[in-house]
């Protein structure tokens, strides 16, 4: 059941909350994670993503929590495929808010109320964890992860358009069910780029995303993420999403002064650079005249100023008004992924 406040924002009176737990080699920790999910959650979907340890069967045999339902993917789809399978099941079950928690114990289930609160209050469409909010928390993070997350965060800001967010690969998330139902799930990355790709897709819906401060916890969990294996995929994914976002937001959906700044600025920088390089190569080391230098430098300077103006515009265009209340209830818009349930 939902109501609207004085500002017209949708608020939940008694939200139905579902937790999705991707299950892949987390047999040692998953029962403890489930046990720590409080009564605020009505449903728990454990998605066995073709786990070689049979963690889904382990939960089915040893967990007595009546809220738990186990789903099995017949083949390994990756974290994204597992989460989308859980989203579909939760939507079909009538959930209002979908929370994703990993099964390895790094994400405290006790924080669930913090993640759903902005959605319940109509202040956000999607919330995600941020392990960098409190600098004291960062000390517990391994240096290589700290450096990697800083680089990934900058790329994600540019590709998603959410310049005020950090820690984009954080998988502790909550989403309004109506927003989840309108995501183009058949296009979202299945693998480790899933969280970053989600932010890009949410921006295409103009959804409001809010960071939730949380502590970084690293105990004896074994990560399946190999930086050398996914670095190329992340670079290609961010470049693709950055290009698509600029086209969607500044040319396909709308044309504004920022669109002209982007086009003219890029043309001037490119033209000035090409002209300067051509003159430098053609003169074979001879000194360039002041006029030649100005003809190359001036377009570059003006172009950079226009691109900086565009960047400031883009940073101020982060969605601020939640979109969930304006979206139609259309659960059929989410596309199915391969998977079975029991």
TrEMBL record:
<keyword id="KW-0472">Membrane</keyword>
<feature type="transmembrane region" description="Helical">
    <location>
        <begin position="290"/>
        <end position="313"/>
    </location>
</feature>
<feature type="domain" description="Glycosyltransferase 2-like">
    <location>
        <begin position="19"/>
        <end position="179"/>
    </location>
</feature>
<keyword id="KW-1133">Transmembrane helix</keyword>
<keyword id="KW-0812">Transmembrane</keyword>
<dbReference type="InterPro" id="IPR001173">
    <property type="entry name" value="Glyco_trans_2-like"/>
</dbReference>
<dbReference type="Pfam" id="PF00535">
    <property type="entry name" value="Glycos_transf_2"/>
</dbReference>
<feature type="transmembrane region" description="Helical">
    <location>
        <begin position="260"/>
        <end position="278"/>
    </location>
</feature>
<protein>
    <recommendedName>
        <fullName>Glycosyltransferase 2-like domain-containing protein</fullName>
    </recommendedName>
</protein>
<dbReference type="InterPro" id="IPR050256">
    <property type="entry name" value="Glycosyltransferase_2"/>
</dbReference>
<dbReference type="InterPro" id="IPR029044">
    <property type="entry name" value="Nucleotide-diphossugar_trans"/>
</dbReference>
